[in-house]
Prior knowledge:
Elements: H1 10-21, H2 27-48, H3 51-66, H4 71-88, H5 92-100, H6 102-112, H7 119-137, H8 141-167
Helix pairs in contact: 2-4, 2-7, 2-8, 3-4, 3-7, 4-5, 4-6, 7-8
Amino acid sequence: RPRLKAIDAQVLIQFFDYALNTAQVTLAHVLETRRALEIQAAQLAARYATEAQRLTLRQLAAQMRSAGADHARRVASDMAIHAVIAEASGNPLNCLLLGALQSPLEESSRMHLHDSRSAMEITRVVDAHDAVVERICAADPMGAASAMSYHFDLALVHVERQDQAVAAGATPTHS
């Protein structure tokens, strides 16, 4: 009997990687797309997250905060938070699309939480993640959407500054 293969993100991964590698889209374009996806995912997660997912989000946010100077741990926590939110949304397309954006997501996360950023800047990013997790755990869809929007505002401002520095021929700063 014929069976259907489970859907996966492989074709989309190739698409997004090709688009970025050939400079047909920028990291800012990817973040703008992720922003729309993740605002909706945060709203849905606030409605549908299980207690286990809420607990996992709280633990990941605490890990991110306690990472200190461990840049790799901050990035891993960041990635895991976003993956759990997508899963908690209850919409399998959110997980697939987030999976397809994994490579640019990792690049964005590394840039956004870069080691050379000041302690205050890193705290601001960690606080933004805490706010998203807090609103999801409080079952507040509008608050979760607002917190996620702010989180992406921070990321987009940073990426736009990086792009402007590169365009001007300067070494990018991590402000």
